[in-house]
Amino acid sequence: EKLQERIQKLDARASELESKELEIKAVRENLDKQLKVIARKKEELESANEKHIKALESIAKLSEAEAKEQLLEAVKAKAETDSMALIKERIEAAKATATKESKKIIIQTIQRMAAEYTIENTVSVFNLDSDDLKGQIIGREGRNIRALEAATGAEIVVDDTPEAIVISSFDPIRREVARLSLKRLVADGRIHPARIEEVVAKTRKQIEEQIVEIGERTVIELDIHGLNPYLVKMVGRMRFRSSYGQNLLKHSIETANLCALMAAELGLSPKQAKMAKRAGLLHDIGKVSEEETELSHAILGMKLCEKYGENAVICNAVGAHHDEIEMNNILSPIVQACDAISGARPGARREILESYLKRIGELEELAMAYDGVQKAYAMQAGRELRVIVESEKVSDQYADDLSFMISQKIQEEMQYPGQIKVTVIRERRAISFAR
Prior knowledge:
The protein is mainly alpha-helical. The protein is built from 14 helices and 8 strands. The chain has a 3-stranded antiparallel beta sheet with strand order 1-3-2. Strands 6-7-8 form a 3-stranded mixed beta sheet, covered by helices on one side. Helix 8 runs antiparallel to helix 9, helix 9 crosses helix 11 (312-319) and helix 9 (270-282) packs across helix 12 (331-344). The termini are far apart. The relative contact order is 0.06.
């Protein structure tokens, strides 16, 4: 009986499986039919799409690739136009903001920096205790005053001005040497050519020492360290030079302080601010160089800074402050701006004085170009040129010829009011010692 029940259950199960198989077969057949329909529909859609594209190409006379390219070009052009408009708008806004901020920075910088100037003159007044000293200074037949002028290169003007002598020279160092020499001679009381030459030599040495001292004091006050001794000396020489009537050392100190303040206002690091100050101090160093060169003062200053181990950033700032080379760092435009601020301040400079000094300098250089010329001094505001020659190289006859040649060259190459007197001085000394 149990076996019979088992057989019946298996038969029922087999019948059920057959039924399921038939259902699955029917579903599969149905799915196959649907897939065929879908495949046919897909083919119909693709065919219709191709017909549609061909129709569009026929109407537009463009291939699909060309249409895509045109569409991309149109979108690209639109995007470029929109982006350029946006960029222009941003640039204009940035310019407006930059102009406003730059004015603000300059105003803040100037307000934090104050410096006083006195326009440098070309004369110094030496006061006397008594007019009786004038005769002693002039000497017998004017030999003392001639010796003093020859030794210092400055013109000594003794006129009716009570208790005063005027020292005239375009070179402030010569004026200072003459003034200090006169002071020593008057105090000593011994005034004669030999004593004059001795005192002038000592005074010139003292001035050289003073120049170094001024340079050292300046770099200490500005908290600048590690400057080469030669550059320190050149900084000191600035004290005795002027640019358009503006004292060069005062201008350089003001520019240095302005550079440091502007760098700070721009948010640069303290190290960069110190470098800006250093570059500001050295930017006109080429104006006081002892080297004879045809280079501009900016390029010469850059060469000196390179020669004496200054940072490349500082060298570029010095060389580029008149746009003679390309600026390659943030400090260069700062130095240029601060140099302009210091020089453009009303009353700081005088253009006429600078052109006069340039003419006087050219007059002396013209004479120095001749062989045998030892010294050349422009006197009486450039109306007289005194040329001192070496007696061993220049004869009396050649001295006459040299005077004529120099006067002719002045006529050909220079422009000047009135006339210029050329005096060639040839002095021969015979010295022996009794022992």
